């Protein structure tokens, strides 16, 4: 068989990596290339380049590739599974390092997201991933962002070494329920995955504590750990997904849980669903995740916003409005008197808008026009707010509040 060129490998392994959503690069420590012991380097659109967004809105370009798309596992939902009829390729450690440095010097990317199929064994694959990060950091003084996908079955010492070189580590739980994992990925063990995540949490906490105590303590995964769940490949409804995400946040201190709508793959397994879920479902789960992390909602509250018949969040309205319509006794909220926590639950009010309202009402009583100047649109707020010159008068009891919103539309995942 003719040997593949580096460009051909990049085409195959960048395309194979597109199904992995967990590649945001927020929360890492800043680096200045001028401060490196050797001077350092670095401190866009193209093959294998993806764009992640930090919480402050910055767009961050990453080289997102697999070390190899060969795998000894046969997970039904994975395009790279052992029985899949796809073209295979494998990078060497040196090729990944050279590609990363080449793109970085040309200012195409700001970092590397590296994952891999399992080759030979979990330990061998993890050694290869760590070797890439070690070479970039120690041999080339690379000061860009590195995100490594770690392997739950690998030796914990390899995960510890990965944390010394990478900014963020992630371990995918794959599916929201243990039953779904046993059915679609029988070679993976949910308990081992959770155990690896717990070990990573302890190592991150120890590293953070050491950094506070000692100025020259080695950094350990300063951007924390994340995970990903596939939505729609099994029978789990949104309530089960929200419940699992909440448990992962509380038990393992994750920075992010990513949701990836199941997408049809080449040579699909017969146990997979014939119809993919709407991408709007993935979007609603991200909104519910945001509500848990920044708006103070509990998993139980978000579950109450789901349709009792299907267990899924409505697609035509956002989860915050769905929750408000099911808890009309909590509204209207007085914009001049309500605590910040109550204002955060008003549909249409974001964190920044609420902070502006709280700051402004210290100086004067707010009218509806004042609120309109502090947020994008007041139309969505009117049924849920009381202001100095406004009272909704039964608007919150209307059953047709959500009709004013445009209907949900389906977008293509990979057009």
TrEMBL record:
Domain Elp3/MiaA/NifB-like radical SAM core: 61-288
Taxonomy, superkingdom: Bacteria
Keyword Acyltransferase (UniProt): no
Record's keyword terms, sorted: Iron, Iron-sulfur, Metal-binding, S-adenosyl-L-methionine
Cofactor(s) the record lists: [4Fe-4S] cluster
UniProt-listed InterPro entries: Aldolase_TIM (IPR013785), DNA_rSAM_put (IPR023874), Elp3/MiaA/NifB-like_rSAM (IPR006638), Endo/Exo/Phosphatase_dom_1 (IPR051675), rSAM (IPR007197), rSAM_sf (IPR058240), RuvA_2-like (IPR010994)
GO function terms (MF aspect): catalytic activity; iron-sulfur cluster binding; metal ion binding
UniProt KW Protease keyword: no
Pfam families hit by this protein: Radical_SAM
Protein name (database record): Radical SAM protein
Organism whose genome encodes this protein: Sphingobium indicum (strain DSM 16413 / CCM 7287 / MTCC 6362 / UT26 / NBRC 101211 / UT26S) (Sphingobium japonicum)
